[in-house]
Amino acid sequence: MRISAKTDYAVRAALELAAAPEGVWIKTETVAERQSIPLPFLLNILAELRTAGLVQSRRGAEGGYRLAQPASEIRVADVIRVIDGPLANIAGERPEDVAYSGAAVALRDVWVALRAKMRVVLEGATLADVSNGTLSPEVTALLADQDVWRARI
Question: What is the pTM of this model?
Fold first, then answer.
């Protein structure tokens, strides 16, 4: 799975908003500074998240951005889908819609299983979970395997 810089920035920005006290408006400059996100890029990302209904904005000296729902109701997968679309796609198609022949017939099943595992992690982690550092037992179990911390080329 490739996580684009834009998606990484979007999740980090959403986590900054999640870490703020509920209902408090956070300035874009504050989010940009805390997460080292270029301000023009952040403004575009927040506009996308606002259009999708994940964040709210308010103009003025007391304005800024805040989550549109409690952080415990917004999943990391929700933010990713707003920015990049479906969690898994094969050349623009959903994994269940691809068809292969010959020795690759079972490859569709591999892609569907991969999406299922991504859902376990990304739908099982809310913004509140990540900002509080309280990850689900499923994610914690995956992290306990030392092999996941080693890069493979």
Answer: 0.90
Neighbours of 71 (CB within 10 A): 20
Taking the C-alpha atoms of residue 69 and residue 37, their distance in angstroms, rounded to an integer, is 23
For 21, half-sphere exposure in the C-beta direction (CA atoms, 13 angstrom radius) is: 1
Question: Is the CB of residue 121 less than 8 Å from the CB of residue 142?
Answer: yes
Among 148, 152, 73, 85, CA closest to 117 = 148
Amino acid at 5: A
The H-or-E segment that residue 67 falls in is: strand 64-67
Q: Which residue has the tokens 């979007």?
A: 10
CB 77 within 8 A of CB 67: no
Rounded to the nearest 5 degrees, what angle is found at the Cα of 34, between the Cα atoms of 29 and 38?
55
Could you please state the CATH topology (level 3) that the domain comprising 5-85+123-149 is classified under.
Arc Repressor Mutant, subunit A (1.10.10)
Residues in the chain with pLDDT < 70?
Answer: none
| Alpha-carbon span 36 to 12, nearest angstrom | 10
